[in-house]
Amino acid sequence: MEGRYISWQTILACFFLLGQFLWVRADVHYYDFTLKEMNVTKLCVTESILTVNDLFPGPVIRVHKGDILYVNVTNKGDYGITIHWHGVKQPRNPWSDGPVFITQCPILPGSYFTYEVIFSEEEGTLWWHAHSDWTRATVHGAIVILPKEGTTFPFPKPDAEEVIVLGSWYKGNLNAEVNDAMANGSDIPHSRGWLINGELGDFANCSSETTYRWSVNYGKTYLLRIVNAVNDDQLFFAIANHNLTIVGLDAAYIKPIATSYVMISPGQTMDVLLTANRPLGQYYMVSTQFLTESAYMNMDIGSAIIEYTGDYNFSSSPIFPDRLPEAKDVEAAMRFTGLIRSLADEDYPISVPLNVTMKMFIVVSMNYLCRNRTYCDDPTAHKIIASSMNNISWANPTVDVLEAYYGNISGYYTTDFPDRPLVMYNFTAKDKDDDVAITDEATKVKVLNYNESVEIVFQGTDVIGGSGVHPMHMHGYSFYVVGMGQGNFNNETDPLTYNLIDPPKANTFIVPKSGWLAIRFVADNPGVWFWHCHFDRHLSWGMDTVFIVKNGETEETSIRPPPSDMPACIFSKHDISIRKWDDNNAGDDQDYL
Ligand code: C2O
Ligand code: CU
């Protein structure tokens, strides 16, 4: 009897110790997300928006590096949704990645799904957002990833932190309007203002009462965690009279950049140090559009107020930034972007692949689509606006690619996504053959072997006058940005300019207007991973595709088994927004490329 008692004790003690050990290594967090409609008043109008837990922006998730997170998502809204953990690599776990019809089918109204989010090497700031239709406009929030317990930042510990979520505001029900626009060929919805932490600020109608305010103490240093959650635009961001020191991009540390403004792409996140060392007073932080297309220009200013605490007289209105670039200042945007380099020191080493085994050359372009080739031959007939990669405009399948791949179900995708364009032409020339404007819709994926060293050169075009930047985003991976330039990529000379020493590591990075971007990564995360332009209009129009990364030889290098409760795929083509815009009534294409 006694022996048995002791052995139970021993077992319990072992469990306890093991628990302690695991606790130190990886904390496990549980969050509940309830999606439902909520009323908010903006621009003098009360509207209903889909939110998480009645918060806009949604709840901030806080973890340490390497933790595990379970988020139970309950959908009490009106349409099917999914959630994506943007920038979280999710080793071997595509099941919880989220993009609709890529790794799962929608969580229908009235049902729920629990995501398992596995953090690994990410440290800094990331974010989560809906990844179905255009719901992410209001369904998004920040993810704060602190250094592992017992370790610290690669810079002096800030006195406090502040999350800044930059968003865009749309009038009416954006999701419904997008679906209507796709069905009727009406104009794409445009943002009506820029939000900082859910508020438009002092320069928008009926908004100054609720402007976001942040109080700072003189002499303290703050870590700003900035998320660009807007749907369709690049932004400039600045704080009046204060220097910003950028120390992180997409949850990877960079060499500090001291600057008066940043340019941030939709999808990107930045960690920024700010020292409150200016005369006591009030200062604006602002976000404005950075525009490279001939598209819709939005002159709105999103604003929030930084106020110093203490006893002082400050009677004028808050001070406005005087060094904010203008909307079309490409030079200012690229100058800032060109400064970004990985920290790449002893404590934060990087490993850029040097022997590339898979080279892809991907032309990212705006196009016209000739569904059934019906409009192709008649130049006066109306055409459907689309976008493509290597002249394939992505079409969502009705069973998600992951389920079809894992279950060996044929008929939903093919594996012949081309490594290079079938037709080479002068991509960035102004006058081109009409032929190159026509694209085809298909569900073609690219299959990679486990551990392949991949290089992709993205090449922008000026097809149909649609040159502009494309913030390319990859799921399941961060990539090294080894090169970037203007005009057509030159296979011989441009690789000589690559930075293989301290290139930035990012999950989203812009292909310059009428230029190219070269990235590298090692395909060491088996799964089904979406990659796409992070402008929602280009995403909807088809500038997206999928990597299937095959399993390695062992269990540790293979996709994990699926959870038992993946949402079922019970759709017909008919229920899903698979259409592209039809510009029949939409006026000039140039308004919305
Ligand atoms: Cu921010 Cu495909 O995602
Ligand atoms: Cu794009």
From TrEMBL:
Give every Plastocyanin-like domain span.
36-149, 163-310, 418-552
Question: Tell me, which GO biological process terms does this entry list?
Answer: lignin catabolic process
Q: Where in the cell is it found?
A: Secreted, Extracellular space, Apoplast
Which note does the record give on the cofactor?
Answer: Binds 4 Cu cations per monomer.
Query: Reaction(s) catalyzed by this protein?
Result: 4 hydroquinone + O2 = 4 benzosemiquinone + 2 H2O
Q: InterPro entries recorded for this chain?
A: Cu-oxidase-like_N, Cu-oxidase_2nd, Cu-oxidase_C, Cu-oxidase_fam, Cu_oxidase_CS, Cu_oxidase_Cu_BS, Cupredoxin, CuRO_1_LCC
Q: What top-level branch of life does the organism fall under?
A: Eukaryota
Primary location group: secreted
Q: Which GO terms describe its cellular component?
A: apoplast
**Signal peptide as annotated in the record:** 1-26
Glycoprotein: is it a keyword of this entry? yes
List, separated by semicolons, the cofactors it needs: Cu cation
Q: Which UniProt keywords apply?
A: Apoplast, Copper, Glycoprotein, Lignin degradation, Metal-binding, Oxidoreductase, Repeat, Secreted, Signal
Q: Give GO MF terms, alphabetically.
A: copper ion binding; hydroquinone:oxygen oxidoreductase activity
User: What is this enzyme's EC?
Assistant: 1.10.3.2
Q: Does the keyword Metal-binding apply?
A: yes
The record's similarity note reads: Belongs to the multicopper oxidase family.
Function, in words? Lignin degradation and detoxification of lignin-derived products.
NCBIfam families in the record, alphabetically? Answer: laccase
Q: What is this protein called?
A: Laccase
Q: What is the lineage of its organism?
A: Eukaryota, Viridiplantae, Streptophyta, Embryophyta, Tracheophyta
